[in-house]
Design goal:
109 residues; two-stranded antiparallel sheet; 3-stranded antiparallel sheet; Nuclear Transport Factor 2, Chain: A; alpha+beta
């Protein structure tokens, strides 16, 4: 099973669903262009003063591309977006490409 270094507990390895959630969070929290040597990593943050529907669509498109690039063992089944009290919520459903399971993740963006 693949693991990555924990961002909250240095020296520990995160595996399984926790690894996927951590990697998705890292993508969501990284502004595009902020990673030296990899300026394409991350989500666009140049979407100020743009209608919410367009912003959400752009973020979801970016996220789909980023997940395909940086978490290749995972297939995104569905990304649902909703607006609740002025907050944008995304629900991500994913499975492992080898068919061994999957999960769901809800985040505010």
């Amino acid at each position: 099973m693949i693991g990555v270094v924990s961002r909250t507990n240095p020296g520990e390895t995160v595996k399984g669903t926790d690894r996927i959630e951590q990697q998705i969070d890292m993508i969501l929290l990284t502004p595009k262009g902020s990673v030296l040597g990899n300026p394409k990593k991350g989500i666009r943050d140049d979407l100020e003063d743009i209608p919410a529907g367009i912003v959400v669509t752009a973020i979801v498109e970016d996220l789909n591309k980023q997940l395909a690039l940086y978490i290749p063992d995972v297939k995104v089944e569905k990304i649902r977006k909703t607006v609740e009290s002025g907050r944008v919520i995304i629900d991500i459903s994913w499975t492992y490409k080898n068919g061994t399971g999957g999960g769901e993740l809800r985040r505010e963006i």
